[in-house]
Amino acid sequence: MRELPIIPGNIMQSNNFLAESKAHRCEAYDMLKKQKAVEFRGGLEAARLTDWDINEMRGLKIRRLFFAADHDGAIPVIRKAAERLITAGYKRDHLHCYVLIGDDMQKNEARLLAVCEAGMMPFAQLYQPVEWIKYSTEWKRFARLWSRPAFYMSKYNLRLGKAVG
Description:
- The structure is a single chain.
- By secondary structure, the chain is α/β, with parallel strands linked by helices.
- The chain has one domain.
- The chain has helices at 22-32, 51-58, 75-87, 105-118, 137-145, 149-155; strands at residues 11-12, 38-44, 62-69, 95-101, 121-126, 158-159, 162-163.
- A five-stranded parallel β-sheet has the order 1-2-3-4-5.
- Helix 1 links the parallel strand 1 and strand 2.
- The longest helix is centred in the C-terminal third of the chain and has 14 residues, at 105-118.
- The chain is globular, with a radius of gyration of 16 Å.
């Protein structure tokens, strides 16, 4: 992996941020401490989240943390990361999770609901390989529904951290 120079700004776009060296992350956290409304938009890998990173993030004015759940096996790790972050003082509405969809609508919906029940706001991402997939209108509607939290929370009668009724 190649680590890029740290440039001042409030959005961390790297999806491999937690895989970067501790020295590089430390430099990034120091820069982010000077910013307002920090966002980690790259889709952090929950399995790499350490107590040190959580402590460093506590010193930031975080608006959003985005994690990634690309398969069903990611759910237990997402659940654990959400628990740890909530215990550390993060609000549930700061925790988001990209959820890869596009193969099986029922399984994808179950994963989206599981992410919500874990305490993170899911955000559906249609899988798009190099060989472009043309998705049906049904898939596009499904993805759009699950990219609008106010709509899916109402439609499915959800609250972050648990399903209702």
